[in-house]
Amino acid sequence: MNRSKTWILAPLTIALVVATTFTPVHAASLEGKACKISGQTKKSGATTFACLKKGSKLVWQKYTAPKKSGSTASSPVDIKSGQFLIGTEIKPGFYRTNTSNCYYSRLSGFSSSISDIISNGSTGANGGVIEILATDKGFTSRCTWYRIDPNVLATPSATKSTIASGMWFVGAEVKPGIYRTAAKGCYYSLLSGFQGSIDDIIVNGSSGDNGAILEIVAGDKAISSRCDWTLITVDAIRSATTTSTKIESGQWIVGGEITPGTYRTTASDCYYSRLSGFRGDIDDIIANGSTPKNGGIVEISASDLSFSSRCAWSKL
Questions:
Q1: Cα→Cα distances 137→79, 109, 123, Å
Q2: What pTM, to 2 d.p., does this model score?
Q3: C-alpha 15: how far from its chain's center?
Q4: Where are the domains of the chain?
């Protein structure tokens, strides 16, 4: 019996040595490989990798995290679908999912009443980002979330001129600028945080029949949108000329897309606004209104930046 035990243990020891010897090879092989969750980090041996964009693709790259004081209690890195306790089962922090239409909620208790909900929502196309606080009691979700390091996405590096539907960090994933969508009825919001509450919303809205125009500034933390957007150059459009005497429903730039002047519509209850900016907030509105029965008349000035309307107009 003793001989048999000794004979079995020897190969096991060799196997462990071989596995340890090949660990550095595995760590090195992770670099440059494709990944899916932007901002996610992963340790391989003694090396930390971050999922970051390289060109147009997301790949694992070596990453050195900023040093933090204190220690964090151990808990799972990812959140699977279900309901979990914060602190013992889930770490506070930032998480991202690529799952669309995923319901989630941050909880202050477990009485199953609506008063337990701190914030809740449903992710858009391409998923979303949520920040879970140490003061939260629980988190419930119908999909899997992956822990991300916001420091990975803290340095502005976005160069793409398009924004896909989803939720994205401004600076690292979306560069500030003025964007246009041609999508109808597209809900969007500019955000100051990731806690999923109404207080995070800087501005929000829904595009008209022929889309909308939106300005993203460096102070915005994120954009969440149900449609795609393309970067435009407003000055170039304004300096162009147009001979059109018609304005279709939508949002248009004065100068290159519509000419200043007096216009009439025969549409009733048509909302319209003359705008001085593209932030989508009340400060952009020079004048607005809704037409009476049988239509109305509006004068668009050369100093207006844009005109937004839910109906068509003809120049008088």
A1: 15, 6, 21
A2: 0.78
A3: 46
A4: 78-148, 162-232, 234-315
In order along its 316 residues, the chain shows pLDDT tens digits of: 444 444 333 343 333 333 333 334 445 578 888 888 888 888 777 788 888 877 778 888 887 765 544 434 444 568 999 999 999 999 999 999 999 999 999 999 999 999 999 999 999 888 999 999 999 999 999 999 999 988 877 666 777 789 999 899 999 889 999 999 999 999 999 999 999 999 999 999 999 888 999 999 999 999 999 999 999 999 989 888 787 889 999 999 999 899 999 999 999 999 999 999 999 999 999 999 999 999 999 999 999 999 999 999 999 9
Tell me which DSSP letter residue 293 carries. T
Distance of CA 289 to the CA centre of its chain: 32
Determine contact, residues 150/39, Cβ cutoff 8 Å: yes
